[in-house]
Design goal:
Chain A is mostly helical. Chain A has helices at residues 9-41, 58-64, 67-100, 107-119, 122-132, 139-146, 163-188, 192-200, 205-216, 218-233, 237-242, 254-263, 268-299, and strands spanning 44-45, 53-54. Chain A has one domain: MetI-like fold. The longest helix of chain A has 34 residues, at 67-100. The chains are: A mainly alpha, B mainly alpha.
């Protein structure tokens, strides 16, 4: 299949060097070197200015005993679970309804609307939701008071017991559209004859979804779980924009905590240690799910 | 209503239920945007605070004019355009060259090299922020759009290489082989034959890079400290930080940021959705 055979070794070599060099150079400088840097620096105490001091495994020991880190990791896991249990199923149901029911009009409209928050800056959406959640003037609390449910009104982003749910709700709101379009592509790839035959046989839409559609799109679903779990582990944006990890670390995720440790407390060694651990966890989780995807694919 | 007439009551109920679900979710996504637009047109904060649902009594654009001047949206837009177009240029250049070699040639360590680059997608961007920050500082590229562009190239390489290689694999090799038989050189083949055929692939990569660069927050927040170099997301949040009580201004700023993107998105929704989902689908 390769084009090697048509050219002499020298010109192939020259072509490969010229085409691959920019990639290898950029990737080495901006991904590989930084990756080695955080692993290396995780064994040092470093304020970012003076000479780093080697302290062995002390950063790792500190990390294991850091309650904020564990709470942050717990929030990442919670986000991952909710992404998988809410975003993907809702995305799948919306996509399935649009495909299975030919009588539904305005399909393009629904598709465009559900995907909208994925093309807008998260900064803008976070700002909008901060206003919606505003305890005094925010439309959410004003609405609750207006319909006589004023006792439910909260300081949504300042109350440690509800803040994490308030933030996750917005993340779920933003990302459901992403899993909707992925599922729309997956469900649309199923041959229509299969679905039509099942409908003619009198199977209910719910049965078709459960017995036919989900087994047929197992690989894309596993791929979505891969994206949702790794994406949730590395999550930063809306948490920082809406709460900066507060109140009292209640909404902290690992990325915000390492960011604060490094850039606010100048603990760059400890931050590198947290970054190393976060990277390892993400790579392991990602590799595990990718393996499940390829296993599922080889069964077919 | 002849169509409804032929349906059983149960079918009508099911159809109504489906519409209800679809419209409910559409409302969740549209309503906050409409709310923002309506309130951005109100003349005073008091009018927003007293009744956030009412439409503006006397719609006015004065918030827009004021917000545009205070937050310097002209400068924010120029900065973001510069960063985004430079990142798109570098990314499409690097990946379309390398992707071609990956799809057409055999060389040692090819699979390992590809795997290493693509698995970079699983490295959390926040994890590399410390070394990138210090690297940019020693290059003198901190608080500088060039430094930001270079950091973005690093972030976007893994997935864009993956997308573009999949496109190359889908191109038939016969055309190239015919040209080779005619004696064309490798560079001629790449530039005159393959590159024009690759336009859809490059467009997909460009769309993916464009939106992810335009909307990026973490690196811009970390590397940029002077308002003169802020990109749109960082500029908007800094504006919000100083004027958080002036809801009319903030919401006008929100609309200034969101509206052009929304229009662009509606015009090119097919290409944008396909471009963004491609990477995840080709896996």
């Amino acid at each position: 299949m390769e084009l090697n055979k048509y050219f002499n070794r020298k010109s192939v070599f020259l072509f490969l060097v010229l085409t691959l060099a920019p990639l290898i150079i950029a990737y080495t400088i901006f991904r590989l070197y930084p990756l080695l840097f955080i692993v290396f620096m995780s064994f040092f105490k470093w304020d970012g200015i003076s000479e780093p001091r080697f302290i062995g495994l002390n950063n790792y020991i500190e990390l294991i005993n850091d309650p904020v880190f564990w709470n942050a990791l717990k929030n990442n896991v919670l986000l991952a679970l909710l992404s998988i249990m809410i975003e993907i199923p809702i995305g799948l149901i919306l996509a399935y309804l649009l495909v299975i029911e030919p009588r539904i009009r305005c399909k393009t409209f629904f598709r465009v609307v559900y995907f909208t928050p994925m093309v807008l800056p998260t900064a803008a959406l976070g700002l909008l939701w901060s206003l919606i959640y505003d305890p005094t003037f925010g439309p959410l609390n004003q609405f609750l008071r207006a319909i006589g449910l004023g006792f439910l009104a909260r300081e949504w982003l300042a109350d440690p017991s509800v803040a994490i749910w308030a933030v996750i709700l917005v993340i779920v709101w933003q990302w459901t559209g992403w899993y909707f379009v992925l599922n729309l592509a997956a469900v649309s790839s199923i041959p229509t004859e299969i679905l039509e035959a099942a409908l003619v046989d009198g199977a209910s839409k719910w049965t078709i979804l459960k017995e036919i559609v989900i087994p047929l799109i197992k690989s894309p679903l596993l791929m979505q779980i891969t994206l949702a779990s790794t994406g949730s582990l590395m999550y930063f944006d809306l948490v920082w924009i809406m709460t900066r990890g507060g109140p009292a670390h209640a909404t902290e995720v690992v990325a915000t905590w390492l960011y604060r440790k490094a850039f606010f407390f100048n603990q760059f060694g400890y931050g590198s240690c947290m970054a190393t651990v976060l990277t390892i966890i993400t790579l392991i989780v990602g590799a595990y799910w990718i393996l499940q995807v390829s296993k599922g694919a080889s069964y077919r | 209503m002849p169509v409804i007439g032929r349906m059983s009551p149960r079918t009508v109920m099911v159809l109504a239920l489906i519409y209800l679900i679809l419209i409910f979710f559409a409302g969740i996504y549209i309503y906050p945007l409409i709310w923002a637009i309506l309130n951005s047109l109100k003349g005073s904060a008091g009018e927003i605070f007293s009744n956030p649902w009412a439409p503006p009594k006397q719609p006015t654009f004065k918030n827009y004019i004021e917000a545009w001047q205070i937050a310097h949206f002209d400068r924010l837009y120029l900065n973001s355009m510069f960063v985004t177009s430079a990142t798109i240029f570098l990314i499409t250049l690097i990946t379309s060259l390398a992707g071609y070699s990956f799809s057409r040639f055999k060389f040692s360590a090819k699979d390992i090299l590809f795997l290493i680059v693509v698995s970079g997608y699983m490295i959390p961007p926040a994890s590399l922020i410390i070394p990138l920050y210090h690297m940019m500082r020693s290059f003198g590229l901190l608080d500088n759009l060039v430094g930001l562009i270079l950091a973005y190239v690093g972030v976007h390489l893994p997935l864009t290489l993956f997308i573009i290689r999949a496109y190359y694999e889908s191109l038939p090799k016969e055309v190239e082989e015919a040209a080779i038989v005619d004696g064309a050189s490798l560079f001629t083949i790449f530039w005159d034959i393959v590159f024009p055929l690759m336009r859809p692939g490059i467009a997909a990569v460009a769309i993916w890079t464009a939106l992810n660069t335009w909307n990026e927050f973490l690196y811009a927040l970390t590397f940029l400290s002077s308002p003169e170099v802020y990109t749109v997301p960082v500029g908007l949040l800094s504006f919000y930080g100083s004027y958080f009580n002036a809801w009319g201004l903030i919401l006008a700023g929100f609309v200034i940021v969101v509206a052009p993107l929304e229009i662009f998105y509606i015009l090119f929704q097919k290409q944008i959705i396909a471009g963004l989902t491609r990477g995840a689908l080709k896996a």
